[in-house]
Amino acid sequence: MNRKTFISLFCLLGSFVGALAQDYTATLDALIQQYYPHADHPGISLQVMHTAKPERLYQRTVGLAELVKQEKILPQSNFRLASVSKQFTAYAIYLLQQEGKLSFTDPLAKYFPTLKGKARKVQILDLLNHTSGLKDYEDEIPIQQTEQLSDADVLRLIQPYSEAYAKQKYFKYSNTAYCLLSLIVEQCSQQSYAAFMHNRVFQALGMPHTQVKEANAVISSRAYGYHLSGGEFVFADQSITSATKGDGGVYSSAKDYGVWAAHIIQSYMQKEAYYQYLQQGSKVSPVITYALGWFMMKDQQGRTCLIHSGESTGFHNIVCIQPETGLIISLFSNRDDQQISPFFEGVLAALDIQPQGMEGKDLFQWLSAAYAHQIKQQQQ
């Protein structure tokens, strides 16, 4: 092939890729218009980016971060990530393990001597990968409870119980586990969980506006949560369980999350220790595993997808990372309606991503079922 022919083909390929990008943008714009047409409602922040390119491939926001003041959602708006926070808690534990301040094989009795029976023998890795079998703290909240729970309250609620998995360990999603992990971070670092996350994770990676919500803390550019009731959105930003930290207390924006996801991709592709632990996850289904705050699955072309969603009062979120391609998708919403499920299916279709093993469900629906223990358990 001569130089002139090569240049012509290269230019043709560039035009083709450019056309695909335009089609991709138009499709996502149309999806947003279909599912989130109202600029005066709570809304979304959708970002699609690629680590191989410094610029964002796609960034759109629609709707209001706060209804009374009519503040618009922006790329830097901070949403409560809910269970998307778990990947950050797991990373904090990973850092401490790398520094020799803890071991994934440490039993919980080392950190929580008041635990009983089988619960004492549960290991840190079981907490990370949801194979502990510990009691769900949500089931033990007193009916008369009005004050928000802390992670320390979670320990208090579950410590009378000894139920846990022994030799045969199965995936059982557990918010309890990640609340205990935040307490372990505090013991091993001699810092508050929020301080450790700020100093060692968010600040270190260049995520200046990401933070763990603490009492009376001011969150800049905050998106407040809303619930659809009787055809209207009502303020629903907090619940009794909204103050626990390790399982869902991180607030972040699309802009900051892109920085975090790029770091995860780098760790994965360089096959660092973090990558090795991801490969040793618990089996959720025959083709899906869970490790370090991530569901790991393949798409129709065999590409790895790291996925998690977050559901809490006023917020629904979902993220998807494809390390091999460098693709990062984040969708944050300050509304807890079910629009996010079919909308995200449309986003995945536009990007030609079909996660495998969903048992006929939309991805967001399947994840919700996994959290509710409605996915058939697989022996480890």
TrEMBL record:
Residues 28-337 form the Beta-lactamase-related domain. Residues 1-21 form the signal peptide. The keyword Hydrolase applies. The lineage of its organism: Bacteria, Pseudomonadati, Bacteroidota, Sphingobacteriia, Sphingobacteriales. This is Serine hydrolase. It comes from the Bacteria. InterPro entries: AmpC-like, Beta-lactam-related, Beta-lactam/transpept-like. Pfam families: Beta-lactamase. Transmembrane segments: none annotated.
